[in-house]
Design brief:
- The two termini are 43 Å apart.
- The longest helix has 27 residues, at 436-462.
- The radius of gyration is 22 Å and the shape is globular.
- The protein has helices spanning 7-17, 53-56, 65-77, 88-98, 114-129, 146-151, 206-220, 248-258, 311-314, 330-345, 348-369, 399-412, 436-462; strands at 32-36, 39-42, 47-50, 107-111, 134-137, 168-171, 229-233, 262-266, 291-294, 305-309, 373-379, 382-390, 395-396, 414-415, 417-419, 425-428.
- The protein folds into two domains: 46-63 and 347-470, Aspartate Aminotransferase, domain 1, CATH 3.90.1150.10; 66-345, Aspartate Aminotransferase, domain 2 (3-Layer(aba) Sandwich), CATH 3.40.640.
- The protein is 36% helix and 15% strand.
- Bound molecules: 4'-deoxy-4'-aminopyridoxal-5'-phosphate (PMP).
- 4'-deoxy-4'-aminopyridoxal-5'-phosphate binds next to α5.
- Its cofactor is pyridoxal 5'-phosphate.
- It holds the Pfam family Aminotran_3.
- Homotetramer.
């Protein structure tokens, strides 16, 4: 049972002593004090199904017994060596982790967060290529450090720092749902976008249209047409589960390499079996990146992140000292190994594919009944549902409506996230251990809440013009 400070005291401390950037979801924010697998418990003993996994972080389940045990055993033996002495765990873990990669991705540097991992990837790309400019997509999220804030391309996540855009070019997002090209069958998902396609009957052109657009940057914007790197999430996470047209990333990687750069896959959200079919999201795009960055699910909630690259690219870190006090510490390494074990032993990648595909198909059925579902997309247990005011224009559902839906689902016992510039995309990133029953529970709640919402909307229409501005 809960024995912490009162709810009011927590709110007061938060207001007085924590910096205002601390995100608290919901009008009445939750106090969560216990977790077990896919379940979270608040201070009053209410149970919630966690369909967001602390933003994709809790990969194998809250307080998974095997991960807990590995951590407990390690904390009893050794916490820390600052890497100035060798400890066995980091070596054991490095071997286990790089074995998960294709090609020559054999060197790993451990850090503590996704932002740090992407910072290091930017440094490696610039040192290795001798070029400065880095491309990424509008709508991308790569971190909050001053360096990576420049890569992140949502104005809502950016502060007016001097030089935040220095050496970074945000290129057009190849988004087949909200972008200018795209439509049916463009992307690699068990369900396809409802948007009617403007491509010729011979096949989808979105990939090549967006590719041509990307190519223009080399002609017009980049000095000498050279680039250090391009970064891409394998599916955009914070941006609202945005998937690119099939084949685009592979061609983009070739283009970047032909112009002096390397390609960085940000697998912070899409790694560790999340997308079901593959262990890494980039494998679904049929190319091998030069650097892969990972965080979140790698440690099931323990601060752990990594950069994996080729020995040739890693060699540039020999040019000067580069140090990270906590990176790959014994506890983090023990947790990382246990997470890999659990994913394998409990066949969680397979579960992600099976349960995720069932969830996606069921959501597509729900979409038939509710106009406000503009789009259902994703792979495995990386799923997005875009709520719209109008299916034709794809205008986002207004924030007060999205917030009401979100809050009511929480009150009924299911938690999920919101993404996209307008916050109108429901993001599901549950621990990979969820069951078909958990999906049914979520679908029932969504069905109830969407029905309530549509009833209200019809009632409001009858009350006349006052309501129109809402959507
Ligand atoms: N890359 C991606 C794709 C992310 O989603 C995030 C975090 N939301 C980051 C990088 C940054 O990770 P961190 O918050 O651990 O710095």
């Amino acid at each position: 049972s809960y024995d912490g400070p009162s709810y009011e005291r927590i709110l007061e401390t938060r207001k007085t002593h924590l910096t205002p950037n601390m995100l608290a979801h919901f009008k009445k924010p939750l106090v969560i004090h216990t977790g077990h697998m896919q379940w979270l418990y608040d201070h009053e003993g209410r149970r919630y199904l966690d369909m967001f996994g602390g933003i994709v972080t809790v990969s194998v389940g809250h307080c998974h017994p095997k991960v807990n045990q590995a951590l407990a055993e390690q904390t009893a033996k050794l916490w820390h060596t600052t890497n100035i002495y060798m400890h066995p765990k980091i070596h054991e873990y490095a071997e286990r982790l790089v074995a998960k990669f294709p090609g020559n991705l054999k060197s790993v540097c451990f850090v503590n967060s996704g932002s740090e991992a992407n910072d290091l990837a930017m440094l490696l790309a610039r040192l290795h290529t001798g070029n400065q400019d880095i491309l990424t997509f509008r709508n991308a999220y790569h971190g909050m450090s001053p360096y990576t804030m420049g890569l992140t391309a949502h104005s809502t996540w950016r502060y007016p720092l001097p030089g935040v855009n220095s050496g970074v070019l945000h290129v057009m997002n190849p988004d087949p749902y909200q972008g200018i090209w795209g439509g049916a069958a463009c992307r690699d998902s068990p369900v396809q976008t409802t948007r009617s396609c403007n491509c010729p009957p011979s096949g989808c052109q979105a990939g090549s249209e967006y590719y041509n657009e990307l190519e223009q940057n080399f002609k017009y914007s980049l000095p000498r047409g050279k680039v250090a790197a391009m970064f891409a999430e394998s599916i955009q996470g914070v941006g609202g589960t945005v998937q690119y047209p099939k084949g685009y990333l592979k061609k983009a990687a070739d283009l970047v390499r032909a112009n002096g750069g390397i390609f960085v896959a940000d697998e912070v959200q899409t790694g560790f079996g999340r997308t079901g079919e593959h262990f890494w999201g980039f494998e679904g795009h049929d190319y091998i990146p030069d650097i892969v960055t990972m965080a979140k699910g790698i440690g099931n909630g323990f601060p752990l992140a990594a950069v994996v690259t080729t020995p040739e690219i890693a060699a540039c870190l020999g040019q000067a000292l580069h140090f990270n006090t906590y990176g790959g510490n014994p506890m983090a390494s023990a947790v990382g190994i246990a997470v890999l074990d659990v994913i394998e032993e409990e066949k969680l990648q397979r579960n992600s594919l099976d349960v995720g595909t069932y969830f996606l198909n069921s959501l597509a059925e729900l979409q038939q009944r509710y106009e406000l579902i503009g789009d259902v997309r994703g792979k495995g247990l990386m799923i997005g549902v875009e709520l719209v005011a109008d299916r034709e224009t794809r205008a986002p559902l207004a924030t007060p409506h999205v917030l009401e839906i979100w809050e009511t689902c929480k009150d009924l016992g299911v938690l999920f996230g919101r993404g996209g510039l307008h916050g109108n995309i429901i993001n599901f990133r549950p621990p990979l251990c969820i069951s078909y029953d958990d999906v049914d529970f979520t679908l029932n709640i969504l069905d109830t809440v969407f029905r309530q919402h549509m009833n209200k909307r019809h009632r409001s229409w009858r009350t006349g013009p006052k309501f129109r501005g809402f959507y």
